[in-house]
Amino acid sequence: MTEISFLADSMLGKLAKWLRILGYDTAYCRVPLRDAEQLRKARAEGRRVLTRSTRLARCAGPKPEICIIKANDPLQQVREVLSHYHLVIAPRAPMTRCLICNRELIPIAPALLASRVPEYVLATRQLFLTCPGCHRVFWRGTHCRNMEERIKQHFAEP
User: b/e string for 64-83 if b means 16 or more Cβ within 10 A?
Assistant: First the structure.
């Protein structure tokens, strides 16, 4: 996908999840960090900071790599990020990252999933992906179609 990556602060968990759905590398601070610690972490990892804290933006200095999120709705927050960084959603990028731990998903053979996936799913799906970090298994079910529909609704070019 794209080279840009993000660090979402503890107030932006749903935004982090949606950015991951869209294929963006998005670390999420579940526990609030001090401003200086959050900036240090973002810089060390080459990430842009996503925050609702104007105080954090003030202490970041003259050229911060920060996007202050104003919207409450997670999909509107995604719009803010896309607009702020002039990003577009790559057609093949959605659903390529683990929604839980942010790692890139990798294909896994269905034969290896007999004890981890419901029989019906195993019989009706061909493509399975797994997270090398948390080992969750993903497949394209109705939840994917629902997410894709929401993506089209909210982010399709007019």
Answer: bbbbebeeeebeebbebbbe
On whether the CB atoms of residues 116 and 152 are closer than 8 A, the answer is: no
Written as tens digits, the pLDDT of the chain (158 aa) is 448 999 999 999 999 999 999 999 999 988 777 888 888 889 899 999 999 988 877 776 655 588 999 999 999 999 999 999 998 887 667 788 999 999 999 999 998 998 899 999 999 988 999 999 999 999 888 777 788 788 777 776 64
Q: What is the DSSP letter of 31?
A: S
- Nearest 10 degrees: CA dihedral of 141, 147, 150, 152? -80
Asked if 11 and 52 touch (Cβ cutoff 8 Å), the reply is: yes
